[in-house]
Automatic annotation (TrEMBL), chains A, B, C:
Protein name: Glycine transporter domain-containing protein
Pfam families: Gly_transporter
Family listed: Belongs to the UPF0126 family.
UniProt cross-references to InterPro entries, sorted A to Z: Gly_transporter
Glycine transporter domain mapped to chain residues: 6-81, 92-165
Entry GO terms, CC: plasma membrane
Membrane topology: Multi-pass membrane protein
Location within or outside the cell: Cell membrane
Segments passing through the bilayer: 6-24, 31-52, 64-79, 91-110, 116-137, 149-167, 173-192
Keyword line: Cell membrane, Membrane, Transmembrane, Transmembrane helix
Keyword Membrane tagged: yes
């Protein structure tokens, strides 16, 4: 399914750019920016493959992911002053990446015949773990754990895909609808500034 | 051995509650609280299974662990104001989890025929790594690295189990004695406020 | 190749000492110091083996690494006041460890037939990931991401080894030259206080 592959590469580039940005903002040097870009782009999928026992992980089997992540990180490092123009489009690419990663992760888990809950969790993890490792490396509480609907969008898409899988919906339809749902919820969340409830422990 | 399984589920619930609490205290949203509960409950055993090459890890093969961890995290999130009543009992459940996790981890390592030191370390890791990842996600130096005898209790239990294994003690006796030792040391440590020495580098 | 094995053990000891130091400086107790020493010494190689699917990882197959890492951590904990004498030599041992770890990691990746870029990255990771996990556990932005040429030295050695592998240079020559390059760049960097460029985002 080459559309999904193209979307996956776009998402990889967008995630790498967000990781590299985080490194630049934390005053890291060239190596640090590359590590953060790389980890953000491939961390989630790599962790998923380790858990499924599918080693070496996807990015060591198809190095295009590594080249894109490192190339984009380098470009972000050297051109970041001019990248303000890209900030708005990047949000859209990031949403595309989010939807694609959830769908690819959930789908792969289903193929490995993990249970329904596991499949959803592995899909969400594919899309979110890279950003969490990025934030841990940058010595911050991961943004996604505090302020974002980011994760709910992923959950919705993963649940939808597992449901469509169980009613045996045609695969391309299931993948497109699920990825579309993630992207839609994510963009609406940005547009209307949605947030999840907090326990209000203070 | 169904007693061990029951203790394991109790420990999973107790660890999930402690993780969820940490998330609530750090002002995380619902998703963050779930992630912290889940990671605390299953992180150690998952890492052990990855190192032993036994993939997918236990929690993807028996989803009851995931359901318990997520269910308890949700309950903690919504009911945490009323859970003060549970704080004291939770310490006991937590000690039970600690002992059970050490014993299960060490036992599994022995079955995979890792060496004596490796088996002890994998047992200790099963019981402690989840809490370390929780603290890294919450952007804190893991509590266990600074102030607790927590780890010594685990070490004692792991060493005892490996020793009993080498003298071919009956398996149920070995498991019960080792888990009991961890729980006992842990409860005594709480009771008498024990602490490990520090190097005093200041 | 027993020279490489000897260098590997020296590197393991040096890395364990640096990890234990970090724990002492952060006021950790005995257990914390041991965990930091252990993770720094074996973290990179363990992560590499997980990614290559070679489980259990090297340190569970040859426990000498565990004994050295724990022994050195204990020694550092109890003798750290007298270890100022060792601080200067430790920098050299650390450089030896760096070179050896890069070469062993890259070489192992090549044997598993990963691509050229993957092999370099896995080599660099073998030498640097342990220190990154150490810094994350100590709740700091990993030093290597901010201030060090450390990583460039590793990259240079990894690239050289992959290049020599592709032109089919004799294996001992390739390994020695690559390790030597890492050690040389590292020592020159310390001597002349080199640093990588930053993006200067402020």
């Amino acid at each position: 399914m080459s559309l999904l592959y193209a979307l996956d590469l776009i998402g990889t580039a967008a995630f790498a750019a967000s990781g590299a940005w985080a490194g630049i903002r934390r005053d890291m040097d060239l190596f640090g920016v590359m590590v953060l870009g790389l980890v953000t782009a491939i961390g989630g999928g790599t962790l998923r493959d380790l858990l499924l026992g599918d080693t070496p992980p996807f990015c060591l089997q198809d190095e295009i992911y590594l080249y894109i992540a490192i190339g984009v990180s380098l470009a972000t490092f050297f051109l970041h002053r001019r990248m303000d123009l890209l900030r708005h489009p990047l949000l859209y690419f990031d949403a595309v990446g989010l939807g694609t990663f959830v769908v690819i992760g959930t789908e792969k888990a289903l193929q490995f015949e993990t249970g329904a809950l596991s499949s959803v969790l592995l899909g969400v993890m594919t899309a979110t773990a890279g950003g969490m490792i990025r934030d841990m490396l940058a010595n911050q509480v991961p943004l996604i754990l505090r302020k974002e609907v980011y994760a709910s969008a992923c959950l919705a898409g993963g649940v939808l895909l597992v449901a469509l899988h169980h009613i045996a919906a045609p695969r391309p339809v299931a993948l497109l609808c699920s990825a579309g749902l993630v992207i839609l919820v994510r963009l609406l969340a940005i547009r209307f500034d949605w947030a999840l409830p907090k326990a209000g422990s203070r």
